[in-house]
Every structure is written in C-alpha cells, then in structure tokens.
C-alpha cells in the first residue's frame, strides 16, 4: 500500500525488550520481520540481561546488540518482589538509554530520519526517554489482546464495588469480559487494592500517551472480538501480526538457556502423536511435592513424554542439577521418558511424534502450539496464563484445564483424556482446523499480512 506524500528516508530502529525469555523471543521475531520489509538502515537491540551479546551477533547479523547495564545490575526473576525489581531495572536503565539515543541522533546521516523506538511496556522508562527526546515510539505487548483489555475493564469493576477477597476466586463471569470469570483475571488482590498505581506503572493502559501504536503477536482468528473492543478503548492504531514465528521463520531464538537437541533424536523414535511434551516456560516454578506428583502422573499415564526441567523450575534448585528424580521413577519410565533442561520448543511442537502439550500457557507457548495444531493440558500459574487457559479450553476448545493442585491421579487422568480418549481426538481435530486458520492469517491479503503492511507504513510516516 503506497501512501502519497510520505517521507521515504531510511530510519534506524531501536528495539527495547524486557530480558525474559517469553518477551525476548517475540521482540527478535518482530525485528526480523521488520528487517525483511527493508525499511530500516539498522536495528539496535538495547538490552539488559542476555547471554553475551557476541553469542548472538553471528546468528542475528542484522542486529546490533547494545547492553545498557552490567549483568549484575539487571537481574529480573519471578517472585513476590517482582514489581520492586522491575521498578529498579526501569530506573537503572533510563540514563544509559537516553545517552545511547542522544549519540545515535547526533551521528545521524543527513538523509536519515529520527530513529523509531519499539519497546516492551514492562520497560516503561523507554517511553519517557523517547518522549523527552521527541522520538516516535511504539509499544509491543507480548501477551494476548484480551489481557490488555482486562486492564481497561478492571477499574470499572472496582467502581462497581467488587472486592478482591470475596470475588477473586469466583466462577462468576466478569461483566464485559465474558467468557472470563473473576478467577481468570490477571490480578492479585493486593494489586487490585492499589489498582491506580499499578495501572500507572506496568500495564501500559494509562501509559499509552504519545505512543504511535500498539503491536501484538496475535491474530484475528484468535481474538477478533477483543481486538475490536480494545481498538474502541485506545485512541491509537493496534496491529495484530501473528503468529510472528511463522512470519519470521529464520529468526533464531535468543535462548537464555542452552537448548538440548538430543530430544529430537529421541522424538524421531516415537510413534506419531504419541508423546506428551511438558514445559512450564521460563519463569513458573513448583515445589518438590508438586514435581514428584508431576513425575508419578507422567509415569502412571503410560504415555511417552518429553519433559523440560529447567534450572530453577523446582523452587531452590538453581544451584543443583535439576534433573534429580528418584531412582524408582527413572526405573519405571526407562526409555519412555526423555528429560532435558531446555528444549528447542518450536521444533519439538512441530514434530510429528508430539500429540499433546502440558503447558503453563504463557502466550508464546499458546501461539506456538496453536500454530502447529497441538492440543494442550493447561496448568496456568500467574498473570495472563489463566486468560490464555480459559480461551484454550472454552473458546477455541483445543485443550483442558488441570484444575486442582498437582495430584498424580489428576495428572494421569488429564494425560489419558488428551492423548488416548475420543475427547482428545476431537480437540486434536479442532486444533488442526485452528492451525489452518492461523496459516491463512499470514497469507497475502489476510489480516496479519495487511496489519504488518499497515504497521510498516506507519513506521515510515511517524
Ligand atoms: C512470560 C510469562 O510467563 C507469560 O505468561 C507471558 O505470556 C509471556 O512472558 P514464559 O513464562 O517464558 O513467558 O512463557 P512463554 O510465553 O510460553 O515463553 C516461553 C518461550 O520459551 C517460548 O517461546 C518457548 O518456545 C521457549 N522455550 C520454552 C524454549 O525454547 N524451550 C523450552 O524448553 C521452554
């Protein structure tokens, strides 16, 4: 689409991800997609904690990796003090980013436009820096559209007198967010108490300000109605251009853990659709009792399984080998189970042997499994994961929720429902249909394809 009268000068792009796996992957995919559109003279990734940037330069030749802080100053992990950590990280990064952007602007070639900044709203300091320097900025939210919509609806619910302790385990539908129930909201009672402060801080709802647009790794075929409603709430354009890993298949992930590719050789030996792949993402953690229940549920299900036990998955296990498990468990499962510390997930999910995914339902895992037609056992932990679970199980109907605490009988039952019974076969069929719809979204003239072209035009024009 050519828009008459727009400037067509090269421009540098600055990407500012939040240094968590589920946030870095889609940001790198977005950078790769925009690079393929050929409108940037260079792309800089201003980052905090990554593996050594030199590790990535060879696999990402279009990107310049620019650390903002030493890794000691930039740690971010899940836990009760997450908001404090985030707030420190934001204050620590502000001056280095400002300095970097000032340098870039100073060294601009005569024919170049001012750089455009695309940032993760968890890195909310970026917007104040961009505003201060009068640079165009665009927000990239790495969770689903419905999650952001819920942050618009929550203040209204609060005004209507709902109180967190009474209502937040309730199965009652949230007015205006059907089919979400109160228990699906990504909000803790403590946050609800201080909703205004929280909204101001990290949700980006009140921080849209002078941003030029919001980007999502989502699709019309998944969230058409939430997209339309969010567009009514926001004054700026919204672009849903997913599934990004399909639009940028060559974008190798920047993995914060080393991928163990031996599991692909193990998968090659398994029957079609027989394996349940188990991964709870990069942040969620379980205790020792829960991991034992997971282990025995998997063992008793009699299905082959590929299980990611990353360092830190079991609370307090960072410093010891995470692949500890009792000997009698190992003897029971033998070759039927493959356990790794980190897997090449997209390749695993696309493998013909994988017939189901037990997931925490982070948004990336959700999009990745939907786009290859693999049905899901959902065990959400926090934030948007409960919303994704509700959509997987009740809207797209390609998965089931493991509702109770971890009990081996429930785990075994859920695996058998998904992998063996007719119910699972029906979900697999619906997942195959949804996969086709996601493929259609990126075809020429379809929603994600058009949205991407519109985004490129906007970036050229702002
Ligand atoms: C976080 C939040 O927890 C999630 O709720 C939010 O939607 C995104 O940010 P995370 O917990 O890491 O994400 O989950 P997810 O969004 O699923 O992202 C994990 C990424 O790591 C995926 O891209 C997945 O492919 C990758 N991964 C995971 C691997 O490559 N190998 C693994 O073994 C596990």
Automatic annotation (TrEMBL):
<keyword id="KW-0808">Transferase</keyword>
<protein>
    <recommendedName>
        <fullName>Glycosyltransferase</fullName>
    </recommendedName>
</protein>
<keyword id="KW-0328">Glycosyltransferase</keyword>
<dbReference type="GO" id="GO:0080044">
    <property type="term" value="F:quercetin 7-O-glucosyltransferase activity"/>
</dbReference>
<dbReference type="InterPro" id="IPR002213">
    <property type="entry name" value="UDP_glucos_trans"/>
</dbReference>
<comment type="similarity">
    <text>Belongs to the UDP-glycosyltransferase family.</text>
</comment>
<dbReference type="Pfam" id="PF00201">
    <property type="entry name" value="UDPGT"/>
</dbReference>
<dbReference type="GO" id="GO:0080043">
    <property type="term" value="F:quercetin 3-O-glucosyltransferase activity"/>
</dbReference>
């Amino acid at each position: 689409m050519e828009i008459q009268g727009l400037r067509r000068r090269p421009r540098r792009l600055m990407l500012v991800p939040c240094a968590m796996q589920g946030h870095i992957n889609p940001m790198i995919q977005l950078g790769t997609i925009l690079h393929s559109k050929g409108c940037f003279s260079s792309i800089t990734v201003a980052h905090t904690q990554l593996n050594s940037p030199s590790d990535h330069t060879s696999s990402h030749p279009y990107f310049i990796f620019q650390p903002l802080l030493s890794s000691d100053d930039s740690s971010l992990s899940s836990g009760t003090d997450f908001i404090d950590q985030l707030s420190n990280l934001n204050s620590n990064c502000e001056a280095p980013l400002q300095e970097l952007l000032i340098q870039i602007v100073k060294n601009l070639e005569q024919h170049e436009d001012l750089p455009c900044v695309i940032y993760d709203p968890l890195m909310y300091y970026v917007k104040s820096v961009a505003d201060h320097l009068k640079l165009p900025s665009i927000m990239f939210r790495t969770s689903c559209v419905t999650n952001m919509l819920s942050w618009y609806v929550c203040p209204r619910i609060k005004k209507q007198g709902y109180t967190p302790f009474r209502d937040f385990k309730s199965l009652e539908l949230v007015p205006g967010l059907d089919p979400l129930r109160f228990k699906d909201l990504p909000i803790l009672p403590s946050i609800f108490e201080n909703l205004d402060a929280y909204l101001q801080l990290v949700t980006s709802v009140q921080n849209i300000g002078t941003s030029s647009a919001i980007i999502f790794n989502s699709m019309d075929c998944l969230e058409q109605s939430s997209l339309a409603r969010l567009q009514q709430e926001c004054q700026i354009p919204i672009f849903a251009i997913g599934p990004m890993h399909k639009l940028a298949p060559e974008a190798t992930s920047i993995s914060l853990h080393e991928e163990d590719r031996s599991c692909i050789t193990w998968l090659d030996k398994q029957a079609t659709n027989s394996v349940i792949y188990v991964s709870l993402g990069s942040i969620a953690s379980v205790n020792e009792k829960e991991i034992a229940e997971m282990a025995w549920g998997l063992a008793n299900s009699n299905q082959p399984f590929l299980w990611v036990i990353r360092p830190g998955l079991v609370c307090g296990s960072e410093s010891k080998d995470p692949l500890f498990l009792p000997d009698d468990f190992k003897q029971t499962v033998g070759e039927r189970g493959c356990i790794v510390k980190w897997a090449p997930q997209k390749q695993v999910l696309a493998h013909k042997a994988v017939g189901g995914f037990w997931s925490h339902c982070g948004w990336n895992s959700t999009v990745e499994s939907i786009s290859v037609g693999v049905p899901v056992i959902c065990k959400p932990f926090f934030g948007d994961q409960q919303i994704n679970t509700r959509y997987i199980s009740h809207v797209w109907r390609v998965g089931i929720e493991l509702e109770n605490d971890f009990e081996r009988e429930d785990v075994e039952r859920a695996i058998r429902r998904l992998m063996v019974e007719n119910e699972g076969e029906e979900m697999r069929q619906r997942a195959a249909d949804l996969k086709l719809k996601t493929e259609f979204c990126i075809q020429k003239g379809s929603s994600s394809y058009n949205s991407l072209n519109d985004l490129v035009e906007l970036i050229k024009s702002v």
